[in-house]
Specification:
185 residues, mainly alpha, de novo design (two linked rop proteins), 80% helix, 0% strand, rod-shaped
Length: 185
């Protein structure tokens, strides 16, 4: 009878350690996403100023500016899932990159001190977002390992904990840059 008690106690301790580990990892994921979300909010706050600065110069990019504003509005809505927020952020990153490339065609805009300050601020925020993404992805990888590896995967399944997606670079940003085109402009 004494052995059964010790085995039961041992299993209870193992269960408690695994449970606490999974909850800790879930909370770390939420914390990392919150940190990244704060950086994304900084970017969203810069977008109206950026759009206002470039609107008068960039008539041909009006559609892209409208899309950026629409994406920002969707991303700031309160009833959006984390996965949808990730997808919107990827689309927004791609559109903002397009605007920054298009600026090269507008020398007056490039000379604007207001625009240059906004561009520096946006670059700084993008660096902070990149750092937040790296931290988030590391946290997600640790969480996913716990959810998928034995024996914690058994408990994770009972708790309905599922694999989460990491932030990935949008396909448009994976394309190779043609240095020849850059040097010819």
């Amino acid at each position: 009878m004494n052995n059964i008690l010790w085995i039961g106690l041992g299993l209870a301790v193992v269960f408690a350690v695994m449970y606490n580990s999974l909850i800790n990892k879930k909370n770390q994921v939420e914390n990392a996403f919150g940190g990244m979300d704060a950086q994304l909010k900084k970017r969203y706050d810069l977008i109206p100023n950026l759009v206002k600065s470039v609107k008068g110069y960039m008539e041909h990019e009006a559609k892209t500016l409208t899309e950026i504003t629409t994406l920002r509005t969707k991303a700031l809505s309160s009833n959006i899932s984390d996965d949808d927020k990730v997808a919107l952020d990827n689309a927004l990153t791609s559109k903002l990159g397009g605007i920054m490339v298009a600026v090269e065609n507008y020398p007056d805009l490039k000379a604007s001190e207001n625009f240059n300050q906004l561009q520096r601020s946006l670059n700084e925020v993008e660096e902070q977002i990149s750092a937040s993404r790296r931290a988030y992805n590391a946290t997600i990888t640790s969480y996913n390992n716990s959810v998928e590896m034995f024996p914690t995967n058994l408990l994770a399944g009972m708790l309905n904990m599922q694999r989460k997606n990491v932030f990935e670079i949008p396909e448009t940003q994976r394309e190779n840059v043609d240095v020849g085109d850059l040097l010819n402009n």
